[in-house]
Write a structure and sequence with these properties.
The protein has 749 residues and is α+β, with helices and mostly antiparallel strands. Helices cover 31% and strands 25% of the residues. The chain has 17 helices and 27 strands. The strands form five sheets. Strands 1, 2, 3, 4, 5, 6 and 7 form a seven-stranded mixed sheet that branches. β26 and β27 form a beta hairpin. α6 packs antiparallel against α9 and α10 crosses α11. The chain is elongated. The protein starts with 23 loop residues before the first helix and ends with a strand. The relative contact order is 0.06.
Length: 749
């Protein structure tokens, strides 16, 4: 950088009245420094006109570190910003608040500044605008500020004209030049608790650290809990706040998304409040940051007024426009972040600027996470309708299934399972996997599942089923491939026939705990032209064996030997004469519950083959109850009574009727779905199962001193009775809902 040092006339302020520099950066810096000092501004900047793009671009800015990052990097010439209006009008312009929510109240910008701009124009040459940021608590700009800034802008325009005559290009670089604070007093207000006091730039740099960390953590966040955790670490903790509450709006009301710290009082005041209410949170949602201290009006204080508190409400701008002040009026506020303090808390302008930036990041993260949750809810709903609502039941065959969606995508997968009951106590077990994670995969899955079920119901053998389904899929020309495993089980002679279409072979765990694969020709996936007919293989199944069909998502994407991994999962339960199928399924699926392992959908289908029913075999009964059936509980009690009476186990009737009554009531009220009741009598115990479509477990919850805890746990009251009747009861989510089960021992006679 080169510069000349001609003689200069002095302004009363001590600044030169003329700028004669040979370097563009030095010319701009000289004007910015003079404007900042003369107007006692927090920051000053020069915007240069880009005629080709039709916009103003930030060329150079100086000031406190936080204030620099509130300045938009570019703005349209027709915008509402002070710089654009000054250039258009040719005179100074002020930006205080482009959109006050209530004309009778004083509102502020998302940042605690007033923007004052003067045009940089000479003759017919338009260069841009000179802009300063002043603290908004000064009120409107002083009468002499506008003319003073125009004077500096005129001198800057003359200096730029001289540079143009000397052949210097007057244009902003792709990124602006920033000048840090020149002294420790260059911060706007007290910054106690940030950096080393008295060291220039220390406080501002320290404030930028949590802002940067918040950006990183929010980019990684996939759930609301992770967003709240990031806000706690980067906002609540650095500001030493007592609590943090994050809320959004839906259907005209505020709803709490998450909270941290001693937040129950704020949660109660916000959750469900109307956005038109005259409460601070609703005011903030309408676009105004509020800083309420202990001497604020008690009527506006959602917390108890017994002890002094300061509350800070910040708007969350979901489209990222919080950093672009000229168009903030068109931004969409998506929620409110509330910070509470146990005592008086001074929130200086630098902190308010920091919180404004953080609020914008939170808003974008909340909007993204909520969109992902909506997409996942749609995907799970679609998946729920495509998978079987309940599994077919055979006296000699107990079945259960688990489905875990991938966590790396919010789209639906193409994995499915099915149990098809045929005549003469025969059953067909199916597991398949459609390529990809998209709506197309889900649609193809529905078509293939229907085709497999139809061909199996017609009586075709497994090899013929996948052969016909493969030809149908080729005719549909979907462009997707499907792997599939079909197992036909004949309980009359203990035979199973297996046919594969590029899918992992099913596994069997014998009663002694040993595990082996039901080998069959691999064949090619469905949707691929097969070189020949599909072939299957027949095996014999030992009574008491557990059959496992699964998709490759169960063993993990990084398994060195997928089949060995699957065998280890199935063999984890150890030997046992009568394995608990639900417990075994939970143990197997638990290995893929970690989010980092679920890069693909995981399907597990377990079947306990009990062999030909004899004198010591299990007695089985089932009941289906329609949703909202007012007589469903009474029907369930009668079903349990009649079944136990027919099996000669009427001594267990009273306890199991009561348990069934509470379990069915809980399912009908809180799951809002059809309910399946199954009763199975083994030589040493009776098992009661109730299945519904709600995956949330019922939690036995006694009365609590906390009103919030009582409301949260109300649905678990009836399970206290179940817990008193049977020590061993459990709830097993399966991807389609849950199975609540209990075992009662049979007393020897």
């Amino acid at each position: 950088m080169t510069s000349s040092s001609p003689g200069k006339d002095q302004h009363p302020s001590g600044e030169p009245t003329d700028i004669h520099c040979a370097d563009l950066a030095e010319v701009l810096h000289h004007a910015v420094r003079e404007a900042k000092k003369r107007l006692s501004a927090v920051a000053a900047a020069v915007y240069l006109l880009d005629e080709d793009r039709g916009e103003l671009r930030l060329a150079l800015a100086a000031g406190s570190q936080l204030s620099l990052y509130t300045m938009p990097g570019r703005m349209g010439l027709d915008g509402y910003g002070a710089s654009a209006r000054a250039l258009r009008s040719g005179k100074a312009a002020v930006l205080v608040d482009p959109d006050p929510a209530d004309p009778g109240q004083k509102h502020v910008l998302p940042y605690p500044y007033v923007a004052l701009s003067a045009p940089v124009i000479t003759g017919d040459q338009r260069f841009g605008a000179l802009t300063v940021l002043c603290l908004e608590d000064r009120g409107s700009c002083r009468p002499g500020d506008g003319p003073a800034l125009e004077e500096i802008g005129d001198r800057l325009a003359k200096a730029l004209t001289m540079l143009v005559k000397d052949g210097v290009t007057v244009a902003a670089d792709p990124m602006p030049m920033l000048i840090p604070p020149e002294s420790a007093t260059d911060m706007c207000g007290s910054t106690a608790g940030w950096g080393v006091q008295g060291v220039p730039g220390s406080a501002g740099t320290s404030m930028m650290y949590p802002l940067r960390r918040l950006s990183v953590l929010l980019n990684r966040a996939t759930t609301v809990d992770e967003v709240v955790g990031a806000a706690q670490y980067c906002m609540m903790d650095p500001l030493r706040a007592q609590a943090l509450v994050l809320a959004t709006a839906s259907e005209g009301r505020l709803w709490v998304l998450g909270h941290s710290g001693a937040s129950s009082g704020v949660v109660r005041s916000i959750h469900g409040a109307r956005v038109e209410d005259r409460i601070p949170a609703a005011e903030a949602f309408r676009g105004r940051p509020l800083y309420l201290s202990a001497d604020s009006s008690p009527s506006a204080d959602p917390l108890s007024v017994d002890e002094p508190r300061t509350e800070v409400y910040l708007p969350l701008i979901g489209n990222g426009q919080l950093l672009d002040l000229p168009v903030v009026e068109s931004g969409r506020v998506v929620g409110v972040c509330c910070l509470t303090f146990s005592g008086p808390h001074i929130c200086p302008p630098e902190e308010r600027a920091l919180l404004g930036m953080m609020a914008g990041m939170l808003g974008a993260a909340v909007e993204r996470v909520e969109l992902n949750q909506q997409q996942r809810a749609v995907a799970e709903c679609l998946q729920r309708f495509l998978l079987p609502s309940r599994l077919s039941h055979l006296p000699q065959l107990a079945t259960t299934a688990r489905y875990r969606p991938a966590t790396v995508t919010s789209k639906v997968g193409g994995d499915w399972y099915d149990v098809i009951k045929l005549a003469d106590d025969r059953a067909v077990l199916v597991v398949g996997d459609v390529e990809g994670h998209a709506m197309e995969s889900s649609a193809v899955m529905g078509q293939v599942r229907t085709a497999v079920a139809s061909y199996a119901t017609e009586g075709h053998r497994p090899a013929a089923v996948i052969d016909r389904t493969g030809r149908l899929l080729i005719g549909l020309d979907t462009g997707l491939t499907v792997t599939c495993c079909v197992v036909a089980l004949d309980t009359s002679d203990d035979t199973v026939e297996v046919a594969l279409a590029g899918h992992p072979a099913p596994l069997v765990r014998r009663p002694d705990g040993s595990v082996y694969a039901l080998e069959a020709p691999a064949n090619v996936p469905l949707g691929v032209c097969a070189p020949g007919p599909y072939r299957g293989c027949e095996h014999t199944l030992e009574a008491g064996s557990v059959l496992m069909l699964y998709s490759d998502g169960l063993v993990g994407w990084d398994a060195a030997d997928p089949e060995a991994r699957a065998q280890a999962l199935l063999g984890s339960g150890g030997p046992g004469s009568t394995p608990d199928l639900e417990q075994l399924a939970d143990e197997v699926i638990a290995e893929v519950s970690a989010p980092q392992q679920r890069r693909d959908d995981a399907v597990l289908l377990l079947a306990l083959y009990e062999g030909t029913q004899g004198t010591d075999g299990p007695h089985v009964g089932s009941l289906h109850i329609q949703r909202r059936d007012l007589r469903g509980v009474r029907t369930a009690r009668a079903f349990v009574h009649d079944q136990l009476d027919s099996w000669g186990l009427d001594d267990l009737s009273e306890a199991l009727e009561l348990a069934a009554s509470e379990m069915v009531t809980n399912a009908l009220i809180h799951a809002g779905s059809d309910v399946d009741v199954r009763l199975r009598a083994f030589p040493d115990h009776v098992r009661l199962e109730v299945r519904d479509s709600d995956s949330n477990p019922p939690v036995p919850s006694p009365l609590s001193l906390s009103e919030e805890d009582n409301a949260e746990a109300e649905h678990g009251r009836g399970m206290l009775i179940v817990e008193a009747l049977a020590e061993m009861w459990k709830s097993s989510p399966n991807g389609q809902g849950k199975t609540v089960s209990l075992n009662l021992p049979i007393s020897p006679h």
